[in-house]
Design a protein that fits this description.
The complex is a heterodimer of chains A (about 270) and B (about 425). Chain A has about 270 residues and is an alpha/beta fold. Chain A contains 12 helices and 5 strands. Chain A starts with 5 loop residues before the first strand and ends in a 9-residue tail after the last helix. The C terminus of chain A is likely disordered. The chains are: A alpha/beta (about 270), B alpha+beta (about 425).
Chain lengths: ~270, ~425
């Protein structure tokens, strides 16, 4: 029998929720540990083994010089590097700083800003190193994570569906909020994976799984404008957990240009 | 894990089995503990800054992302603070559903900490997974306990991590009655299983260590505190949450360069979390949890932080039992949320996160935007107390002849009793240490 793949989990700027998803696989956790060797997972184990690793799960975005250097070391130690979640894949909610003044932001939060060393941007892992696979979501879906780990343990190519949330609503039989209520919903341009929960709970999708492939965000936003939704409403919708994903960033920046004044365009 | 030791310096570079990333530096002088510093190197994400100018309706979705283990706590403190700013009165039904959602989070968070993060310390195991070799039934039971907490979060909140159903004024929609009813048998099992888990944890060996803590928690005349109540302390403080700033302050400490919350006048540390809550509210635990607290012999004024695990288990029983009673009474009639108008205003609120009091304050404008926000997480309030405890505990361990490697392990074990939540790092600074000459 071939040896078990060695798994490592690394955290950068994030909330911990995506790596917690592995521990949230309550029914599968002990069985997964039979299939893969957990070599480095600080949140779950004090037994931290050095690399090299077969699979590295990377959570969080790069916001400091130290982390920019650390991700290169992680890459060098890892055969297959997979980002888990919106922070690692697109920069996360903290990428809103990319549109702000970092010095002023730090001053507004910390009384002694001179002790804070942080970059002016929050960037995706793929901006720094080669990423072999990106798992979307804020947070990721733990069933998708388990499927991928099993695929890797068996030497199969990992796959997740890339269609939009829209299709999942049709499968669930959820009435379309855009058509029926005229509310803006990012379901048509957001990748599947959450189970289309927001529309099923009577609210529009806020895009936490990031852009689907392909995603015609510009066209969707034009439709929302025809329905009478203002850029003041649509810019924050596009600029949230995947604000710096190119398909969402481009559409939000087009909207800012349309505004009579750029006041508040940070939002 | 690698532990770097030298004559005068013991370093725990990565605290494991805690949420988020931090370390501890222990400095010795003339063979005695000189000081101990909790080193938080979680990068700042600047939540209070990024909220400014955004629609206030987004606040519960955004602040949830401060922490993947306790997102509901952030959602609850933020909606209560915003409702105070907007003058919104929620209905009794919405209030009960919020408690139900919070029960789900306490269950998920406490079951995780007790079984996978903390219990391994009492047996010298590296992880909960390793502990499952020795205690397969107990760890599997713990995972099931955790799972039904998550299932509750999915039914009421839409999903377990970063629920999507919470909004200012209530919920986007009421939970489905059939889905709620389907949870009842699991929660009946849960009350029993959590009771057994408590009996198991009470048999652990607890180091003989007690401190004269000032316990701080919420208290409420009719119920075990979660979403609301007054702030009380074991030294007699009793204040409404609106007087938080007159009594507590975040202090910038020169020697550690980290912000610690302390009592405003005395500049002393205080202790938040399950032991503090039980000490102040023991008679408001659910009937099974109250009986069990007596049965396992938890002292009325327990001051041993290692026994936080027993308090956490008792709250697990409480959360299962209270959730069960709300589930049994549930029907899906009534409004999901209260409507409101935007207005200029400010408001604050504190709720009991699994780790202790979480304080939020917001100012909003007439256009419905956040003008400013302030968030004080429980771990930043416990930080000073943890450092104090470490000095006391490690000093006595050193006097008892502990080696430096043993001290580093003792240090991690003590920190873990607090169930640290480092990603809740809105107020943490990156710490740089100076070598003492």
């Amino acid at each position: 029998m071939p040896r078990k793949p060695r798994l490592a989990v690394f955290k950068f700027a994030s909330c911990d929720g995506c790596q917690l998803s592995l521990l949230d696989a309550e029914d599968e956790l002990l069985a997964i540990c039979d299939r893969v060797e957990i070599a480095h997972f600080a949140e779950a184990s004090s037994d931290l083994q050095p690399g090299p690793y077969d699979v590295a799960l990377v959570e969080g975005s790069i916001t400091t010089e130290e982390d920019a250097a650390r991700i290169r070391r992680v890459r060098a130690d890892s055969k297959f590097l997979m980002t888990i979640g919106a922070c690692a894949t697109a920069g996360g909610i903290q990428s809103l700083r990319n549109w702000g003044q970092i010095d002023e932001w730090v001053q507004s939060v910390y009384p002694s800003p001179e002790f804070i060393r942080t970059l002016a941007t929050s960037s995706a892992i793929a901006d720094h190193v080669l990423v072999d696979f990106a798992l979307h979501g804020c947070p990721i879906n733990h069933h998708q994570l388990v499927d991928i780990l099993v695929a890797l343990a068996e030497g199969r190519q990992p796959r997740v569906p890339s269609h939009s949330v829209c299709l999942d609503c049709k499968h669930r039989g959820t009435v379309c909020h855009v058509v029926a209520r005229g509310i803006p919903c990012l379901g048509p341009v957001t990748q599947s994976g959450c189970g289309a929960i927001c529309p099923a709970y009577d609210r529009g999708c806020y895009g936490c799984f990031g852009p689907s492939q392909p995603a015609n965000t510009t066209s969707l936003v034009s439709q929302f404008r025809i329905h009478g939704h203002s850029p003041e409403k649509l810019v924050p919708l596009l600029r949230s957990f995947n604000a710096a994903a190119p398909e969402f960033q481009h559409a939000s920046e087009q909207l800012v240009i349309l505004r009579p004044s750029n006041e508040g365009c940070r939002s | 894990m690698p532990i770097v030791t030298s004559n005068d310096l013991i370093e725990v570079p990565i605290l494991t089995r805690v949420e988020g990333e931090g370390g501890v530096t222990i400095r010795l002088r003339d063979g005695a503990i000189d000081n101990v510093k909790l080193n938080i190197y979680e990068p700042p994400r600047l939540f209070e800054a990024l909220l400014r100018g955004r629609p206030l309706e987004e606040t519960p979705d955004i602040t949830a992302r401060i922490c993947g283990i306790c997102p509901v706590a952030y959602q609850m403190s933020s909606v209560h603070a915003l409702e105070a700013a907007l003058g919104i009165q929620i209905t009794p039904k919405i209030r009960r559903l919020r408690r139900l959602l919070y029960c789900g989070e306490w269950i998920e968070s406490h079951a995780l900490h007790v079984h996978l993060l903390h219990a391994p310390d009492f047996f010298g195991a590296a992880s909960g997974i390793a502990l499952a070799q020795r205690f397969p039934d107990e760890i599997k039971r713990g995972l099931q306990l955790k799972k039904f907490g998550n299932r509750m979060l999915e039914v009421v909140g839409g999903r377990a991590i970063h629920p999507i159903n919470v909004r200012v004024g209530g919920f986007h929609r009421l939970p489905n009655a059939q889905e709620m009813a389907s949870l009842i048998p699991h929660f009946e099992w849960g009350v029993q299983a959590a009771t057994e888990a408590t009996r198991w944890a009470a048999t652990f060996y607890f180091p003989d260590f007690e401190q004269p803590y000032e316990y701080v928690s919420l208290t409420h005349p009719d119920e075990y505190p979660m979403n609301e109540g007054e702030i009380v302390s074991s030294t007699g403080l009793k204040i409404p949450v609106t007087e938080y700033d007159q009594n507590f302050v975040e202090e910038h400490v020169a020697h550690s360069t980290a912000l610690h919350a302390v009592r405003r006048k005395e500049r002393t540390s205080y202790f938040l979390g399950p032991l503090a809550r039980i000490n102040h509210n023991r008679d408001r635990l659910s009937p099974t949890a109250r009986r069990l607290a007596d049965e396992v012999g938890l002292a009325a004024d327990c001051r041993n932080p290692f026994k936080n695990i027993i308090a956490r288990c008792l709250e697990l029983v409480h959360a299962y039992e209270e959730a069960l009673s709300i589930l049994r009474d549930y029907d899906s009639t009534g409004i999901a949320h209260v409507d409101y108008q935007h207005q200029d205003g400010s408001g604050c609120a504190a709720t009991e996160a699994p780790r202790g009091i979480l304080f939020h304050e917001y100012r909003v404008d007439q256009a419905g935007r956040i003008v400013s926000g302030r968030i004080i997480p429980p771990t930043s309030q416990n930080q000073r107390q943890i450092e104090h405890d470490l000095v006391q505990h490690l000093t006595s361990r050193l006097q008892a002849g502990a080696t430096r490697d043993e001290l580093a392990i003792d240090c991690e074990r003590l920190v873990r009793t607090y169930d640290l939540c480092i990603s809740c790092s809105t107020h943490f600074l990156k710490v740089r240490w100076e070598e003492s000459s």
